């Protein structure tokens, strides 16, 4: 029995590796336009990593999952490979360890809490969330489901009035950010109106101690402790989220699209003198949240040749004054400062966190899920394996 189980895991592992390699192959470009398009890195290269396919297949086999919620599913596909390797290694220690790993993955509340907190912070109570599906003429674009037309019910506990010191920190951070970015949107170059947009949401910075611990602990399910600690360190100071390095100047439209994970910024490099920072802009697809996703389902690749997104069924674009054209996926944006100490650039660590979670948010479809969909009481995952009998072998 155990030998058959091991054989099945090996077959699945090899199958997903072969499938990933085949799907990753591309046809050479035949003209300059295709060559230029092909040069744009895919915004979700993780989805085509053969090693990741093999590790997830092994993990699914070892834990006996048949279904996952789309948040857990999305987290697995964007998780650190080192964490996936550790989870697989835990499963290989025996059926009890596999059971523990399964329980960690099956426990959905913590992961939902984190992604929902990120998504809720990226929602506006006064907005109508009836966004239509993202449309694309990209040949690599997968079929995307239309987001629900009902708005998530955002609940929050009554906030205490900010103290004088908190108001002062917010005012100073906004002032420094505006001065650093020359009161211009870092995406479009527009000068008015612009506002300071938080990378790490302000509301998450106000979480109580228990929720804060839960958030960072949950992230360690899928990303290394070192990486999560680096993220946390950036908002762990006395002013928490109210610092210049956690802010970017954006127009209201750009900020709202960013908050809904309609696009993400991939941090590329910070100059040695810390006066210049490059990021790559990517429009993200829109998917529908699913309470049950086949654990073996491979996500469709993210389109990489987009020049806008669809809102209310109409295409919405961001126009760059600097380039005199629409902002497109793959565009390189450069942020600068004359004073890296007094007016620091956005934190590379926080931009990395945003790059990870915005893509998880997009793939999971949690942006447009309702409370009823996210917090269902029915978490009966299918299990077709008798753990007790395995222990007796």
Automatic annotation (TrEMBL):
Keywords: Signal. Residues 124-172 are annotated as: Disordered. Residues 185-265 form the HNH nuclease domain. Residues 155-164 have a biased composition (Polar residues). Residues 126-146 have a biased composition (Acidic residues). Residues 1-24 form the signal peptide. Pfam families: HNH_2. It comes from the Eukaryota. This is HNH nuclease domain-containing protein.
């Amino acid at each position: 029995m155990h030998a058959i189980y091991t054989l099945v895991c090996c077959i699945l592992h090899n199958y997903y590796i072969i499938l990933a390699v085949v799907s990753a192959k591309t046809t050479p470009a035949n003209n300059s336009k295709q060559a230029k398009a092909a040069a744009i890195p895919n915004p979700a290269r993780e989805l085509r990593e053969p090693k990741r396919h093999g590790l997830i297949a092994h993990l699914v086999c070892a834990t006996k999952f048949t279904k996952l919620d789309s948040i857990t599913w999305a987290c697995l596909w964007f998780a650190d490979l080192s964490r996936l390797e550790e989870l697989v290694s835990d499963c290989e220690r025996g059926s009890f360890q596999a059971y523990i790993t399964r329980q960690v993955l099956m426990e959905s509340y913590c992961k939902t809490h984190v992604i929902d907190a990120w998504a809720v912070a990226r929602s506006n109570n006064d907005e109508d969330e009836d966004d239509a599906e993202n449309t694309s003429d990209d040949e690599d674009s997968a079929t995307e489901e239309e987001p629900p037309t009902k708005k998530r019910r955002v609940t929050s506990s009554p906030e205490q009035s900010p103290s004088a010191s908190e108001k002062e920190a917010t005012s100073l951070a906004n002032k420094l950010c505006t001065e650093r970015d020359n009161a211009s949107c870092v995406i479009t170059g527009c000068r008015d109106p612009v506002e300071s947009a938080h990378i790490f949401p302000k509301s998450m910075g106000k979480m109580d101690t228990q929720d804060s611990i839960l958030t960072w602990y949950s992230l360690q399910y899928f990303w290394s402790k070192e990486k999560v600690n680096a993220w946390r360190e950036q908002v762990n100071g006395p002013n928490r989220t109210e610092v210049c390095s956690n802010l970017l100047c954006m127009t209201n439209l750009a900020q709202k699209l960013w908050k809904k994970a309609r696009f993400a910024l991939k941090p590329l490099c910070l100059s040695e003198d810390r006066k210049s920072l490059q990021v790559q802009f990517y429009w993200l697809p829109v998917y529908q949240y699913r309470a049950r996703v086949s654990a073996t389902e491979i996500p469709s690749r993210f389109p990489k040749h987009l020049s806008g997104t669809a809102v209310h069924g109409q295409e919405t674009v961001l126009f760059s004054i600097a380039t005199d054209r629409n902002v497109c996926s793959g565009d390189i944006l450069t942020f600068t400062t004359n004073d890296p100490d007094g007016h620091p650039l956005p934190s590379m660590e926080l931009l990395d966190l945003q790059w990870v979670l915005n893509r998880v948010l997009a793939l999971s479809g949690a942006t447009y899920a309702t409370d009823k969909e996210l917090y269902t009481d029915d978490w009966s995952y299918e299990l077709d394996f008798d753990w007790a009998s395995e222990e007796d072998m």
